[in-house]
Design goal:
heterodimer; A: 409 residues; 11 helices; globular; B: 343 residues; alpha+beta; Butyryl-Coa Dehydrogenase, subunit A, domain 1; Butyryl-CoA Dehydrogenase, subunit A, domain 3; 3 domains; four-stranded mixed β-sheet; 9 strands; 49% helix; binds flavin-adenine dinucleotide
């Protein structure tokens, strides 16, 4: 058990630092939070730069354009980029952090060939079409129907998805559909499809968040025809594959944000010293406690990564729920603390509301979703209690027709 | 002792609730009300509430008020909070206790507390007919300099810039460029303290309203929304979120009512000997009510899941207001310090 870089890792870190120092000053200012086309081109440009320099898909296989590096090097990459203030994945979140890894783990060779390099080059944006109005935490209750067409080559899909982040700018969607009978066992009839976002029959209805951003949409699917060739894995095996997607989403999806949060904490401490709130011992202690929390979360990430690196399939384990639970809550405390230190300044957004990354009022509102998106805190606690600790499930209501089997999302 | 609200107090609250029900604020159920008018204030709502006399609750009847006390005021302000009524209600009611001409609610009065240093953000400035400013007196005059005083200022004489993006979109803000140069002195340090104390009490009552109505909304949603084939309120995790919300709101309301009664006893009473106790009670009420409103807004969002994070559902309006009010009339830390000094 040790935390030091190997000589190779040290070299990797130094090269990366030098590259970041050279390239970051060439970037434009981040576009405003609601200019989605501009955000897409900004994030894609950054991804293309990473790709040219050999830093895209660090731990993805070399045969698809990845670097084939170890998860540890990936972690070094996330750490150094964030410390240097490099752009975050942005609209590439789904593609890079969970759709891509899921495709690598589960898709066929042609599907990988088709999508992985394009995701790495920043040319393909993905979104996640899992949740439905009546299937949130109980994702397996999803009802969007996919019926095999008489041509035998297409699924015809009808239904409604909701909360689809970045749908407006996405090219493809990881879509969970029900191929089995509507009243069959709910975990069995689910299938994981790749849906091109320009397929006829798909309508988007943008939804506004509490922060005023149109970051997610409702998707209405009416006779959307999706080629059978776009199915990932077997028909009916979608629930298992979705669990793989979640493992990546929760396990590695928010890792870089720990570094961001730790950096933000130092800014808060600097501000507190400047405006004398630092003299309040309660403020000082809250800052200190959060420093301890984020450092421990970073250590937990290293532990999880080490375990994944030495596991057979490289997929993060249920320990990721511990990370998801504690990070999302610590993240909210961070934004509250920031507001406290800013005092009445926190009543207004930045006058020219120009950045979507880091404006404190906006971040505070955005962080409300952290304990809800990607599985609520209540559901994470259930997963920890039931799957890790083996505690019995809550007693079911005798009247409940459909039994709750398996995990929430 | 009978610490229950009286029939009259409940009737007053009911009358206010009826009027508010006719003017639903955006984000509250039945939210298609008209957009607020100048300076973020809905004129019709203001007029109807003025007609009920809510700005002169504590003003003697001889001066055109209702001649009631703090316990009645907090009932009114809890209702305003429940409906997320927007406007300079607190400041106008405070001004009326000082200058009875404001009791009828024909004018909108704001309040700027400039004793705490920058930044000076003023609410609803464009809607105001007058502004009370609490400031520290400059100069050398013994017994006055270095103490606070209350000024009445003409809003148009202020040099202030509109804030382009207030976090609470319903409450327009202006940033004051400099202290007002002119104003009529309408109160001394003692008046200033009394205004700030009563402002903290009314704000606490408003926060209780937020905390209580959000409890009801969360509970209703938890009963109606099903996942895993059952109402989400049947999961202990959700049930306990709701139970904690209820407990926070109840506790805060008890503290607010208790402070109102103590402040009322002091006011009618003798030489103000119990003022420190009443002041500490107000601080306790503000501290608990701020916590209840903010924590309940967060919990309500959590109970609503993805829905809670949408603009449409409107829960964010309550959270934004609760955040803003916890920075008005003393923050939790300041009130905690005040309480500790009384111990
Ligand atoms: C900003 C944001 C972005 C999102 N992006 C996407 C996306 O891109 N793609 C996508 O598919 N989805 C996305 N989601 C959806 C997200 O995954 C769901 O909101 C989440 O799973 C919760 O589902 P729900 O909203 O239906 O809430 P519900 O499941 O209805 O939950 C309501 C409340 O009940 C509680 N609850 C439910 N079941 C249980 C239980 N068994 N035990 C205890 N408590 C329970 C929950 O914790 C919550 O407090 C996003 C959500 C947000 C907020």
């Amino acid at each position: 058990m040790q935390l030091r870089d190997t000589p190779a890792q040290q070299r990797f870190r130094e090269e990366l630092r030098a590259w970041l120092r050279a390239v970051l000053p060439t970037l434009d200012r981040q576009p405003s939070q609601d200019d989605w086309p501009a955000r897409r081109s900004y994030d894609s440009h950054w991804q293309a730069l990473l790709h040219q320099a050999g830093y895209a898909g660090l731990n993805w296989p070399a045969e698809y354009g990845g670097r084939g590096a170890t998860p540890t090097e990936h972690l070094i990459f996330l750490e150094e980029s964030e410390l240097a203030g490099a752009p975050y994945v942005g609209v590439n979140f789904v593609g890079l952090l969970h759709a891509g890894p899921t495709l690598i783990a589960e898709a066929g060779p042609e599907q990988r060939e088709r999508h992985i390099p394009a995701i790495l080059r920043g040319e393909e944006i993905w979104c996640q079409g899992f949740s439905e109005p009546d299937a949130g935490s109980d994702l397996a209750a999803l009802r969007t129907r996919a019926v095999l067409d008489s041509d035998g080559e297409h699924y015809v899909v009808n239904g409604r998805k909701i909360w689809t982040s970045h749908a407006e700018v996405a090219d493809f969607c990881e879509l969970l559909v029900r191929t089995g009978p509507p009243d069959g066992p709910k975990h069995q009839g689910i299938t994981w499809l790749i849906m091109p976002m320009d397929t006829p029959g798909l309508t988007l209805r943008p939804l506004k968040t509490a922060g005023g951003s149109t970051e997610f949409s409702e998707m209405i699917l009416e006779d959307v025809r999706i080629p059978v060739a776009n199915r990932v894995g077997n028909e009916g095996d979608g629930w298992r594959i979705a669990m793989v997607t979640f493992a990546f989403e929760r396990g590695t999806g928010f890792v870089a944000e720990v570094v961001w949060a730790r950096r933000r904490l130092l800014e808060i401490a600097a501000l507190a010293r400047e405006n004398a709130t630092w003299e309040d011992s309660e403020i000082r202690r809250r800052i200190a406690r959060l420093a301890a929390e984020f450092d421990a979360l970073w250590a937990l990430v290293k532990r999880n990564v080490s375990e994944a690196e030495h596991s057979a399939d490289g997929i993060p384990g249920p320990g990721s729920s511990v990370f998801k639970l504690r990070f999302s809550e610590a993240r909210q405390h961070l934004d509250d603390l920031h507001a406290e230190v800013r005092g009445r300044d926190s009543l207004a957004f930045d006058d020219d509301l120009c950045t979507y990354d880091g404006e404190p009022g906006y971040e505070r509102l955005r962080s409300l979703a952290y304990t809800i998106a990607a599985g609520t805190s209540q559901v994470q606690r259930n997963i920890i209690g039931e799957r890790i600790l083996g505690l019995p499930k809550e007693p079911k209501e005798p009247s409940a027709a459909s039994a709750a089997k398996g995990d929430g999302r | 002792m009978d610490f229950r609200p009286t029939q009259d107090q409940l009737a007053l609250a009911g009358a206010v609730r009826d009027v508010l029900g006719k003017h639903p604020a955006p984000g509250t159920p039945g939210q298609d009300g008209p957009e607020p008018g100048v300076g973020g204030v809905a004129g019709a709502l203001w007029r109807d509430l003025a007609e009920l006399g809510i700005f002169g609750v504590r003003v003697p009847e001889a001066d055109g008020g209702l001649g009631l006390g703090h316990p009645e005021s907090v009932h009114v302000f809890e209702e305003l909070g429940r409906s997320l009524a927007t406007g300079p209600f607190t400041a106008t009611a405070l001004a009326a206790t000082l200058l009875p001409e404001y009791a009828a609610g024909r004018h909108r009065v704001g309040l700027g507390d400039l004793t705490g240093g920058a930044p000076q953000l003023l609410e609803h400035l464009d809607a105001l007919d007058a502004l009370l400013v609490i400031e520290i007196v400059d100069g050398e005059t013994p017994g006055v300099a270095g103490h606070s005083q209350v000024l009445r200022v003409e809003p148009i004489e202020l040099r202030a810039d509109a804030v382009p993006h207030p976090v609470d979109p319903r409450v327009p803000l202006h940033r004051l460029r400099q202290k007002p140069l002119r104003g009529e002195i309408v109160g001394d340090a003692g008046t200033a303290d009394a205004l700030l104390r009563e402002g903290a009490l009314l704000t606490a009552a408003y926060q209780v309203g937020i905390a209580a109505v959000l409890t009801e909304r969360a509970v209703a949603y938890a009963k109606q929304r099903t996942q895993f084939g059952r109402a989400i309120g049947s999961f202990q995790a959700v049930k306990h979120l709701c139970a904690d919300m209820f407990a926070r709101a109840e506790l805060a309301r008890a503290a607010v009512h208790s402070a109102a009664v103590q402040l009322a006893d002091e006011a009618v009473g003798s030489d103000g000997a119990d003022l420190p106790a009443a002041a500490a009670a107000v601080s306790a009420a503000k501290l608990l009510a701020d916590d209840a409103a903010v924590a309940n807004a967060r919990a309500a969002i959590q109970v609503h899941g993805g829905m809670g994070c949408t603009w449409e559902m409107g829960l964010h309006f309550y959270l934004k207001r609760a955040w803003a009010l916890s920075l008005a009339y003393g923050r939790a830390a300041e009130h905690a310090d005040l309480i500790s000094e009384s111990l």
